[in-house]
Amino acid sequence: MKNKEVGMTLIVKTITRLTVGLILLYGIYIVLHGHLSPGGGFAGGVIIALSFIHLMLAFGRETALKKLSQAQASVLESLGAIMFLTIALLGLLGGYFFFNFFLHKGKPFALFSAGIIPLCNIAICLKVGAGLFAIFAALVLFKGLDEEK
Amino acid sequence: MEIRLLLLFMIFAAAVAVEIEDLLSSVIAVGAVGLGLSLVFLILKAPDLAITQLVVEILCLIILIRATLKKDLPLIKDGRWLFNTVSTLVFIVSFLIFGYFALKELPRFGTPIMRVAGEYIEQGLPKTGAANIVASIILDFRGYDTLGEATILFTAVMGVLAVIRKVGRINEE
User: Fold this and answer.
1) Phi, psi at residue B60, to the nearest 5°?
2) A113, A120 Cβ separation under 8 angstroms
3) Do B132 and A34 touch (CB under 8 A)?
4) N or C: which end of chain A has fewer CB within 10 A?
5) Residue range of the domain that includes A120
6) How many whole angstroms separate alpha carbon A102 and alpha carbon A48?
7) Residue A100: exposed, middle, or buried by beta-carbon count in 10 A (0-12, 13-18, 19+)?
8) What is the Cα–Cα distance from A122 to A37, expressed in whole angstroms?
9) How many C-beta neighbours within 10 Å does residue A1 have?
10) Of B47, B132, B161, the CB nearest to A134
């Protein structure tokens, strides 16, 4: 006999398998087009975190933590913070903090334009997404510890 | 007009969230307030804020339902209903009087008193090259503010992970 079924029912699992990739892709689109269309690093990061949380709600916490463990999420979050601070400090090369140090800023409305702004968006996305997922994973693990007693 | 209707709906949902007995219904009413706020942002032509409000609201709902709903909440029910009602009424009346005098002094909606905003709107595209003016402001002109916000979130995550981490919990047995 298999051990106890984790997560929700078969219907929820099938729908989740179909939609979770689309949600992740939409989050990445929001982040990468943050300087062209509404959205940006914060909203895109939360959407990416929500896709992992979706996985955790449907399939139980083991499946989601196998894809992205809590330690990995902490490392990614710190990496995002350091990346954002590094971009800000690199501006000192051009004169001041947060200097937009790309001399040729590209054509407006192109994907590769606006200098440091897409890089900052990616850094904030890493920070926000990994940080919120780490908080949720910590809360769920904390609750699980209480239930085991 | 739509904004007034949405505001009335949000006030009603907030009152329901405070007054209702069941915890799950209360959490769902709080979610209704957040979704109404997202629609208000969309009507006021702030789609960035609307997207952020929507996704953060969904995340908060999931966290509230999934991670904290099963905890027991002690409900305070003492017999001092007269004192409670009188103090609530006094606070509401003083808030309304203060708001009447304070809101008259505010500038009209859409005419900011900070002149630096006009400079940002004019120089946003030529100076940064970003088509989305919100991104050019929060990540270039006002990068310091975004750095502070990132620091706040980093500190919050560190605090949560330090308080409820798995290793180092005291074994109660």
Assistant:
1) -65, -40
2) no
3) yes
4) N
5) 10-148
6) 28
7) buried
8) 15
9) 3
10) B161
- B41-72 confidence digits (pLDDT tens): 999 888 888 998 999 899 888 888 876 666 56
Q: Is residue A35 part of a domain?
A: yes
pTM above threshold 0.90: no
Q: How many domains does chain A have?
A: 1
**To 10 degrees, what angle do helices A41-59 and A117-148 make?**
30
Percent over 90 (pLDDT), chain B: 24
Tens of pLDDT, residue by residue over A87-145, are: 888 877 777 676 766 666 667 777 777 777 888 888 889 998 888 888 888 887 776 66
User: What are the residues whose beta carbons fall under 8 Å from the beta carbon of B23, sequence distance 6 or more?
Assistant: B69, B73
pLDDT tens across B38-48, in order? 999 999 888 88
Task: Give the domain range for residue B36.
Answer: 1-71
Give the nearest chain B residue to A107 (CA atoms): B129
3-state secondary structure of A1: coil
Tokens of A94: 């051009």
In a domain, A1, yes or no: no
ipTM for the assembly: 0.80
Q: Hunting for tokens 């989050």 — which residue is that?
A: A27
> Are the C-beta atoms of A28 and B37 separated by less than 8 Å?
no
Structure tokens at B136: 């050019």
